[in-house]
Design goal:
Length: 188
């Protein structure tokens, strides 16, 4: 029962943190027209924030390894940013560009890889490196299929750089998992 109470408390902290972060755009909307969120925007962001927080809590719950917690935090943060950027403005062209749907594949590689790895640090290394590779390949596949123009807001070089940065974040998560695994923390 003590573990259940602890879990409930941690989820409440995530809920309170989510609500606090959602207050930022809500308050900003009162003072500027630059921030214009619809109820749908708040619902999506609330789901992303709360879901990311709960995933982090559940995955790191039984690990005492700081490296494991940092690796998981970086993986969750990177996934959150990938979803947020893709939904808000899109990475390849606008958010309406069908090429952006390829990023669902990156998240699928991450999720399936983590499930196969059973969230164990030594195996998560491979899952996160595979995710980084998938992220790096998205703009290449998009260029082969859709032939995007150089008129996109980020341009092809910008897309490649942003994808490389996000892939590097997934790669850094893999390296942290490697450290956690080599320190003997093979459990989640």
């Amino acid at each position: 029962m003590d573990r259940m109470q602890s879990l409930k408390r941690e989820v409440w902290f995530v809920a309170i943190g989510t609500a606090a972060l959602l207050l930022i755009p809500l308050v900003a909307m009162q003072f500027t027209t630059e921030v214009d969120w619809s109820p749908f925007d708040f619902a999506v962001m609330g789901t992303l924030l709360f879901g990311s927080g709960v995933i982090y809590v559940l995955v790191t719950r039984s690990s005492r390894s700081l490296a494991y917690k940092l690796a998981t935090g970086l993986a969750v943060l990177t996934s959150f940013l990938l979803i947020w950027i893709t939904l808000a403005v899109g990475i390849i062209g606008s958010e309406d560009n069908p090429a952006n749907s390829l990023y669902l594949g990156v998240l699928a590689v991450e999720g399936i890889g983590a499930a196969i790895a059973l969230f164990r640090a030594p195996r998560m290394v491979y899952a996160m490196f595979a995710t980084a590779l998938a992220m790096f390949l998205v703009p290449i596949v998009a260029m082969l299929i859709w032939r995007p123009s150089f008129d996109d807001p980020l341009g092809i070089i910008g897309v490649l750089v942003l994808n490389s940065v996000i892939a590097a974040m997934f790669g850094a998560s893999a390296l942290l998992y490697r450290r956690a695994g080599s320190a003997g923390s093979t459990s989640t």
